[in-house]
């Protein structure tokens, strides 16, 4: 309920811990709340990239890549949304035995279908 104060806190935290995923999550949520969809998409992309470099970030990588695609659509950036969807499919197709990831892949398939229309 205090967007300017929230933004200032997030930016201050980012200066102190530039690679912190906790800060990136806060930043992405702030951008979504402010309807700054392009910035939200970019931030979710950074999160996804970060999770995808680690073996234990499988689920969170899928979540953030999917959120990136959705944010690109809200920003009316269809080509970028399509690219994010394809990156998700390359890495997570089949779900890797995780039903939650399989559900995210399915949601992303529907998203890409809507983009194709």
What does the model show?
Helix content is 79%, strand content 0%. The chain has helices at 3-16, 21-33, 37-52, 58-74, 78-92, 99-116. It is globular. The protein is mainly alpha-helical and 117 residues long. It has six helices and no strands. Helix 1 packs antiparallel against helix 2, helix 2 runs antiparallel to helix 3 and helix 4 (58-74) runs antiparallel to helix 5.
Radius of gyration, Cα only, in angstroms?
14 Å
> Roughly what percent helix?
over 70%
Coarse shape: globular
Q: Please identify the structural class as seen in this structure.
A: mainly alpha
Low-confidence stretches: none
Sequence of secondary-structure elements: HHHHHH
Classify the beta-strand content into a percent band: under 5%
Q: State the distance separating the first and last CA atoms.
A: 37 Å
Question: How many runs of DSSP E, i.e. beta strands?
Answer: 0
Main sheet overview = none
DSSP helical segment count: 6
Q: Quick check: average pLDDT?
A: 94
Question: Could you name the key traits of this structure?
Answer:
6 helices, mainly alpha, globular, 117 residues
How is the secondary structure organized here?
Blueprint: H1 3-16, H2 21-33, H3 37-52, H4 58-74, H5 78-92, H6 99-116
Helix pairs in contact: 1-2, 2-3, 3-4, 4-5, 4-6, 5-6
Short note summarizing the structure:
It contains six helices and no strands. It has 117 residues and is mainly α.
